[in-house]
User: Which sequence fits this backbone?
């Protein structure tokens, strides 16, 4: 979440004209395992196999050899608002690091620990507890055998605006932090990492003070941005990108820039990853569609061994108590160029064939 005040264009509001004014489902107080232990209950407390609350916010998932690896921001401690951010409600917690969990079925998660920890003794370091480390994503480079993590690195007031990179020999770390960059000299805030079928990897990120998104091809080792890049969604103020591919076409789901407050999602489609991208509108339908069900996009996960099945991953932020922010995972369906996401109180993966909603 790039917590800067952005002007959400009138066009975004018009895209959700068919939505109701319903604020969406309220976060439930019960545990995810309260009914069917095999079901997803979006917005409730999710626990790992040891009974501890899962702590992996604004994350993404890597799938390899039958195992899913979930990486995210580990949030704990007091939620507070720096003086420079109070005017727009920019609360934060001190940086702890990037966490990792593993699972073979997407429901039973084992904690691997903090795979990229904060730096406590060097205030100038990108990973110092006073900085911002957000939206970690990991892919494996087949040529080097390395696991590469990219993330949003920033200062407390969000003026630093860079992309950081770290590497590991194993998916569960430890990751070694290398550096941060402004790709091709441009600001980089909310971001995601996408690996294409041909092995090339791309960084999508909010730039130009969040007014315009950029996409840049990474080097063969995934450790540097190249000079091949494009501007996307010019002056539309989009963040929280989640990119996926289906039937040879590229899809992206994004959020507007409204701080921690939820807003309508928007998706776009392209034949080429560099564009042009055609904005299609809000993928969410039904009550709560105008706030993305009180959540914000972070990743779209292709279900392993189930072509055409996807899970939309989002975060339901709690700006006054960020460690208690919740996960909202929902089935995402694609028909042609049309993407749809509907709220489900409870749903399950009936088999490796994909996601099926119960109710």
Assistant:
């Amino acid at each position: 979440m790039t917590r800067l005040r952005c002007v959400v264009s009138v066009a975004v509001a018009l895209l959700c004209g068919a939505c109701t004014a319903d604020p969406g489902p309220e976060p439930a107080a019960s545990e995810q395992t309260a009914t069917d232990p095999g079901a997803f209950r979006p917005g409730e407390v999710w626990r790992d196999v040891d009974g501890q609350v899962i702590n992996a916010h604004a994350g993404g998932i890597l799938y390899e050899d039958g195992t899913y690896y979930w990486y995210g921001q580990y949030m704990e401690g007091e939620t507070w608002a720096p003086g420079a951010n109070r005017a727009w409600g920019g609360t934060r917690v001190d940086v702890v690091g990037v966490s990792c969990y593993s699972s073979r079925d997407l429901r039973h998660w084992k904690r691997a620990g903090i795979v990229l920890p904060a730096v406590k003794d060097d205030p100038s370091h990108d990973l110092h507890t006073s900085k911002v480390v957000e939206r970690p994503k990991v892919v494996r480079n087949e040529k080097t055998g390395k696991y590469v993590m990219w993330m949003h690195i920033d200062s407390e007031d969000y003026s630093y605006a860079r992309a950081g990179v770290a590497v590991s020999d194993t998916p569960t770390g430890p990751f070694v932090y290398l550096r941060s960059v402004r790709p091709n000299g441009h600001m980089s805030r909310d971001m995601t990492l996408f690996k294409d079928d041909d092995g090339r990897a791309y960084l999508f990120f909010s730039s130009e003070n969040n007014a315009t998104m950029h996409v840049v091809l990474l080097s063969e080792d995934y450790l540097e941005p190249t000079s091949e890049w494009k501007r996307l969604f010019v002056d539309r103020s989009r963040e929280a990108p989640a990119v996926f591919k289906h039937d040879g076409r590229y899809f992206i789901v994004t959020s507007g820039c409204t701080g921690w407050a939820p807003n309508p999602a928007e998706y776009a489609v392209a034949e080429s990853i560099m564009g042009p991208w055609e904005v299609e509108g809000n993928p969410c339908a039904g009550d709560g569609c105008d706030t993305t069900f009180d959540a914000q996009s972070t990743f779209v996960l292709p279900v392993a061994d189930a072509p055409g099945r996807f899970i939309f991953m989002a975060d339901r932020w709690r700006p006054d108590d960020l460690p208690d922010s919740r996960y909202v995972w929902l089935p995402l369906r694609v028909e042609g160029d049309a993407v749809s996401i509907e709220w489900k109180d409870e749903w399950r993966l009936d088999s490796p064939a994909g996601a099926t909603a119960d109710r």
